[in-house]
């Protein structure tokens, strides 16, 4: 499984990368780190990720704009939205656009692992 991490916060990108590279999630390979939707689409064209963690609030192209564009490139990509915007309407909007899960910030390492495992195990 290939993972692309999309977040404008270097701290969040590094934290997700560290958790994934720790090995607790099994054979997930980190294939890219992106600061916004534009970088995410560029990385997705090259790396073809199976999993994507996606922030919603980013400069340039935000997550709500990027989700359908990314899925147009890679229909089978599973997207986990990780955002401080934890209001239900935003989460529902992201899911309607094609995201497969929502994890509010701040999150624990365990909550991220559980959410990513849920995406890995979800087929379809």
Spans with pLDDT under 50 lasting ≥5 residues? none
What's the helical proportion of residues?
40-55%
Q: What's the arrangement of strands in the largest beta sheet?
A: 2-1-3-4-5
Overall mean confidence score, pLDDT: 93
The outline comes out as: globular
The total strand number stands at 5
Question: Would you identify the CATH H-level superfamily?
Answer: Response regulator
- SS class: alpha/beta
Task: Report the radius of gyration as a whole number of Å.
Answer: 13 Å
Q: Give, in order, the helices and strands.
A: EHEHEHEHEH
The count of helical stretches stands at 5
Distance between the termini: 15 Å
Kindly give the count of domains: 1
What's a quick, concise take on this entry?
The chain has helices at residues 10-21, 37-47, 63-73, 88-96, 109-121, and strands at residues 2-6, 29-34, 51-54, 78-83, 101-104.
Overview of this protein structure:
The chain is of the alpha/beta class and 124 residues long. Helix content is 45%, strand content 20%. The protein has a single domain, classed as Rossmann fold (3-Layer(aba) Sandwich), CATH 3.40.50. A 5-stranded parallel β-sheet has the order 2-1-3-4-5, sandwiched between helices.
């Amino acid at each position: 499984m290939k993972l692309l991490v999309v977040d404008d916060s270097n701290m969040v990108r590094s934290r997700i990368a560290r958790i994934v590279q720790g090995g607790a999630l099994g054979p997930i390979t980190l294939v890219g780190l992106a600061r916004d939707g534009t970088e995410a689409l560029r990385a997705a064209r090259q790396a073809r990720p199976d999993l994507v963690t996606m922030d919603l609030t980013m400069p340039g192209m935000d997550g709500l704009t990027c989700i359908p564009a990314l899925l147009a490139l890679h229909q089978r990509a599973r997207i986990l939205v990780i955002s401080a915007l934890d209001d239900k309407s935003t989460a529902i909007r992201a899911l309607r656009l094609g995201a497969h899960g929502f994890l509010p910030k701040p999150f624990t390492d365990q909550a991220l692992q559980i959410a990513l495992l849920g995406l890995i195990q979800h087929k379809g």
